[in-house]
Amino acid sequence: xxxxxxxxxxxxxxxxxxxxxxxxxxxxxxxxxxxxxxxxxxxxxxxxxxxxxxxxxxxxxxxxxxxxxxxxxxxxxxxxxxxxxxxxxxxxxxxxxxxxxxxxxxxxxxxxxxxxxxxxxxxxxxxxxxxxxxxxxxxxxxxxxxxxxxxxxxxxxxxxxxxxxxxxxxxxxxxxxxxxxxxxxxxxxxxxxxxxxxxxxxxxxxxxxxxxxxxxxxxxxxxxxxxxxxxxxxxxxxxxxxxxxxxxxxxxxxxxxxxxxxxxxxxxxxxxxxxxxxxxxxxxxxxxxxxxxxxxxxxxxxxxxxxxxxxxxxxxxxxxxxxxxxxxxxxxxxxxxxxxxxxxxxxxxxxxxxxxxxxxxxxxxxxxxxxxxxxxxxxxxxxxxxxxxxxxxxxxxxx
Length: 399
Hints:
This protein is mostly helical. The protein has 16 helices and no strands. The protein has a single domain (11-195, 209-398), classed as Growth Hormone, Chain: A.
């Protein structure tokens, strides 16, 4: 049997792809480390260290999430700059803002530091997906996105394991761990500079095309769902059930280890069954989870719900693969950025609404709004094309 030689051009493309995906994975790992530490520390930090009420927590999250809306304008201003360079600059902001948490003296400075790191993070959000889609082989977008999410989970697990070890041994208090988070973000920025993808971000536009409408609506509803976990799920465990920092870090660590194992498999499953089936299953499960937050009072069961909630977030990559099906490659970043903006309109509204409900009606009602958003997302997902028709559309677009 004679081996067919690989053309030099194909070998060069393959090497370019491998290098690009490797450094995107490294950057994702650094960001995963930074963000998981922020999330793992945040509930104890705001409830025990800063002594915020439920309404204060909602106001903080509303301010922080407003950066997702401004991210679209910043990407427009940076339209002629390559995506890796934008990523490096934004991750520097992420690192500086998170490190500043070590020193914030009051609620006002906490908001300022949050705005700094959040603006960097939210401009970064659409970039790894866009760069990965630019480098992925045809038909393997979900798998490649799953690999990047897996790399993020590895970075998250490493950061949380280090933090858990330091806290468990009594070496570190809560605040110095934010310096570790900032360091992870800065290392991710260095990795960005090594990504060979020269794709420009392009000038984002407010494109409300009918064919993109389902994506925009799903992105909006996902923003509402996301804030249930970020703003209130961990806060519930600490404020209502007095969960310690060590336990919160352990829960986040378990979630990231499971995410590392499951994300590529979830990505393959999405490639196999299509976005409609994946998202319907995901949002139906989220409706059950949010009901559990509202009515289950067993601490162990709530811990299990919290871990599962975090792991299932990997299913949101189905929204990115849906964009890959319906949007021309030249508009990937612009469309994903528009999705980020829609996501964050909901992310700005939900924490404030949830904080008011927490204060005046009780925490259960904050989680019931998540049930409503999840059920509405199920209905919207049912309007997505089935897998067979999506594949036919894919082929027509490529031809």
